[in-house]
Amino acid sequence: MMRSTSSTIRTHGAAGSTRATRAAAALAAGALALSLAACGGSDNDKKSGDDHSGGATGGTGGGTTVTLPKLDGQTLEVAAVWTGGEQKNFKKVLAEFTKRTGAKVTFVPAQDPIINFLGSKIAGGQPPDVALLPQPGAIKQAVDKGWAKPLGPEAQAQLAKNYSQGWQDIGKVGGKQYGAYYKAANKSLIWYNAKVFENAGASEPKTWKDLLATAQTVYDSGVTPFSVGGADGWTLTDWFENIYLSQAGPEKYDQLAQHKIKWTDPSVKQALTTLAQIWSKKDYVAGGAKGALQTEFPVSVTQTFTGGDQPKAGMVFEGDFAQVNIGETKAKVGTDAKVFPFPAVGSSAPVVSGGDAAVILKDSKAAQALVTFLASSDAATIQAKLGGYLSPNKNVPNSAYPNEVQRKIAQALIASGDDFRFDMSDQAPQAFGGTPGKGEWKDLQDFLKNPSDVAGTQAKLEKDAAAAYGSGS
């Protein structure tokens, strides 16, 4: 599964998270919109050796920028929920670590929620050395349970060198650095089949009203407008968060993320009602609600870009990491598969981010070295070149990204600095915001099934949130 990962950068309902993401999302949204508007070229329109960062990214990105110890004969296990191309590409990064240090690294596929997976491993006396945690809430839980170990001075030095303060802060708990955000996600993107739009005469929308008009235009051309990966509840939370952030604003977003306002608040009603403008039209969603609830995220992407000019849907909403799945089809990003920022529902377009942080569970010289490597520009540059990956590391050269669309998304992320909001469900206790079949994931799946029940959905969300926040789990 890829989640950024809801893959979709935030902390667990603490005041620190608000400070880390305090600036308005509008600034980053504007930068993203301008950047994506400039992308129209194909995958090969710029050579990989050309740096078009325009100063947004720095560093050399080549050679060795981090010193690692010799670890011959040592072994490490790294756990993450990544599958498919994402896992394959990360293993190449781990292989480079082995080449430089001599340590053997084994990737351990984890199940979501990863905290439960880690709990069973720890109970059995076999925890992995390092885990990639997709929620700041999970980092806090790992710290509260005594599992996570603070990062050493070498890893912290790489973070200070390569990351903005906001990205450093969201890996902290109680003022100590426990997480290094290796992977980021821009979760405010809608990908579309260029041929479908061309045949329909559809244009990229700027506002929610425009999006509804574009959807109707695509529908009138004989193609279902949207593909929704409803089997993975995190995709549905991302839909809600983008609408809520744009419509209710950053302050309300922070309050709801920390459960300082209830899910029965009128602002939630407004966002769900807006979301129902798409979800309530069964002909707007591929397979209707029933089909969407049986569609996992990777399929929601691939079915948008297969089938020639008659795919199962013309658009799919999700983060930059959708490129990994687009790459499994014959579609080329920038030509066959294009992208636009999530349209403004309120006064400005939203920018919702997500990410995966490396956390040490077994403190050792080798584990500290691995996280130091993952916090360096060396590791991130390797995976950037492989595609379908976005790094918050400001010293990854923009030219490392393999296509113009990805380069612009990366440039906008770095240029935005700390002006983002982290995925709301990832800030919540895992029982509410990160568990399949429970909490927000389940409640929004039920809402997709019955989008007319706004009040009932609010009541269920509030009941589940109150229980989870009250227990802290």
TrEMBL record:
Region of interest: Disordered: 42-68
InterPro entries documented for this protein: Bact_solute-bd_prot1 (IPR050490), SBP (IPR006059)
Keywords from the named record: Signal, Transport
Compositionally biased intervals (Basic and acidic residues): 43-53
Signal sequence bounds: 1-40
Compositionally biased residues, Gly residues: 55-64
Keyword Zinc tagged: no
Entry similarity comment: Belongs to the bacterial solute-binding protein 1 family.
Identification of the protein by name: Sugar ABC transporter substrate-binding protein
Organism field: Streptomyces spiralis
